[in-house]
Amino acid sequence: MTQEKAGQGVGRRDLLKFSAVAGAALAGASLIGSRTAAAEDGLSLKGKRIAISATGTDHFFDLQAYNAQIEEVKRLGGEPIAVDAGRNDGKLVSQLQTLIAQKPDAIVQILGTLSVIDPWLKKARDAGIPVLTVDVGSTNSINNTTSDNWGIGKDLALQLVSDIGGEGNIVVFNGFYGVTPCAIRYDQLVNVVKYFPKVKILEPELRDVIPNTVQDAFTQITALLNKYPEKGSIKAIWSAWDIPQLGATQAVAAAGRNEIRTYGVDGSPEVLQLVADPNSPAGADVAQQPAEIGRTAIQNVARLLAGQTLPRETYVPALIANKANVNEVSKKLGIG
Amino acid sequence: MSVDIQLAPVIHFEPGQSGFSSARGVNLAAAALRAGSLIAFVAILVVFSVTAPYFLSVGNIGNVLGQSAISGVLAIGLTIVLIAGGSNVVTGGIDLSLAANMGLSAAVYATIAQLGYGDATAVAAALLTGGLIGVVNAIAVVGAGIVPLLATLAVMNIVAGLELVLTQNTVIPASTPLLTALSSSGLFGIPALAYVLLVFTLIAAAIVQYTPAGLRLYAVGEFPDAARAAGLPVRRLVAGAFIASGLCGGFAGILSVSNLSGSTTGSGEMLLPVVVTALLGSVFSRRLVPTVIGTLLSTLFVGFLVNGFQLLNISSVLVSGVQGLLILLVVSATTLLRRQEA
Lengths: 336, 342
Description:
Chain A has 336 residues and is α/β, with parallel strands linked by helices.
C-alpha cells in the first residue's frame, strides 16, 4: 500500500504541470541561444577548408544539420568539404581516411557509431586536425554540439508516464543502445519508470533497424499487437528516435488500437503531423533543432580557429511537441 | 545487362583483301581494344592527378588500396566463381551470398574476440564460417543442381538471418592485436590493408592464372561439355570454386572487423558493388574474360573514382550518379570496340 502511494506521489497533474514548465524553460532558453548567436556574428572562416562528414542524410535530423553546416561554412567565407556516407560504416571510414589525407582546417563529424569512428577521429587528431562532433561524444572530439539528451529523455519519459496515468505496459525499441544519444534517452526512460512501479517495460525489448526502419517497426508492432490482443494490455510505445515511431504509429492505427500512444525523438515533419492529428496514436515527439545544431557546430569551429576555448559540450535546446502544443513547436521549427 | 562475355575475339582475314595493311589495321584495333579500358583507367588517373589536390601522393594511393581491400577480396572470390561457372549473369556462375558471408564471418570474429578468445581462434572461426557457407553453396549448386543465382540468393538470406540472430542487429566492437595491426599503417605510411590486398591478389592470381587447376576452371566455365569429355572433374571444380569464394568471404570478414573496429550491420549493401566490380573486371583483361588481376584493376578503378570525387569536392549528391556513368562509359566503349573488332 505504502509503495503504491509512493509511486503515486508524483501525480498525473503534477507531471503535466512539470512538463509545461520544462517546455516554457526550454523555449526561453532557445530565445537566449539565438540571441547570443546573433551577437557573436563577428566570426569568420575565410580561407579555411572545413570538412563535414555525415553518417547519412536520409533522416530529417542529419539532412538538416548537414545542409545547415554547408551553408554556414559558406556564409562565414570558408570552403566546405562535405561527404555523406549514406549510413554505410565502411564508406564512412573510407571517407574519414581520405579527409585526413586532405588535411582540412577542421573536421566536423555528424553522428556515427562511436566504436567505428573513434579510431579514425583519433588518427585525425594525431595528424593535427581539430575534430568537432555533432551528436556523438568522443574523447577525440574537442567539442560536441548536441541536444541535451538527458533533458530530452526525461521530458519524453515524463510525458509518456503522465499520458498513461502512471501505470501500464510500455513497448520499447532499443536497437541502437550503442549510439550515445539513444543510450542516454533510454537510460532516462528507465530512470523515470523506476519510480512508477505500475509502469512496466515489456520484455523482450524490440530492436529497431536501419534501413527499412518504418516497415520493420510496422511489422514488429503488428506482430506484438497480435500477441497482446486485449485493449489496455499495452499503453504506449517508446523509441529513441521517431522513424520507428512512424512505423509503430501506423501499425497501431491499422490495428484499430488507438488507445495506445507512441513516443519518439527528432521532430521529423511527418511525425509532428501525426502528433497534430487528434485521432492519431502519436502522443509526443521531442523536436531537436538540427539546423541550429549544425550552425552552432560550425560557429564553434570558427571560435576554435580564432583561438577561443570551447566547452566540452554545447547544448542546443530541444522542444517537446505533444498533442497540446505541437502547432506552436512546428511554427518555431519553421515546419508547416 | 547481358554479360555473356566470349573468349578472345577471332581476327578475321577478309578474303580478297590485300594482306598486309588490313591485317595490320585489325591488329591495331585489337591492340586498342586490349588497351582501351586500361587507357581509360590511366586517363582518369591523369585527370585526377592534375585536378585533385593530394591525389598523387603515396598516402592517398595507399589509402585507396587499403579502402579497396575488402571489396577487392570479395570481388576476387566472386571472380573465381565467375570463371568456373561461366560469366552469363543469369545462368552462369554467381555467388550472391558473398557480402552476407562477410557480415556473418565478421560477426563471428567479433563475437569470439569479445568472449576473450585469441586471434588464432577468431581467425579460424571466421574462415570456417566462410568456408562452410561455401560448402552449402556448393552442395546446393552441384549437389542439388539449383541455378547458382537462386541457390546463392537463398543462402544469402539464411546467412543474413544468422548474422541478425548472432548480433541482434547491433554493432559488436572488437579490439585484438591482429585487428590493431591490420588497421594500422605499415611501410611508407601505407595502410596494412593495402599490402594485404596486394599479397592476396598475387597469391590468388598465381593459383588461378598459373596452375593447371586454374586452367581447368576456365575450361569448365567456358566449355563445360568439352571439359567433361576431356575427363575433367567438372562438379568437383565448380564446388571448389564456391568453397574458395566462401573462404574469401570469411577472409573479407576479418578485414572488415579490423577496418570498422568490430562487426557492424549493413554488410549486404556491399553485394551489388562487388558484383559490378567483378563483372567490370573482364574489361581489364586481355581476352575479356574474368581474371584475378582484371578484378583487382576494376576494384582500384572504382576506388580511385570515389576517392578522386571526394578530393575534387564534388557534391555528395552527384557522386553516385557520375560514378555509374563513368563505369557505363568504360564498359560500353570496350564492348563497342570489341564488336567493331568482330
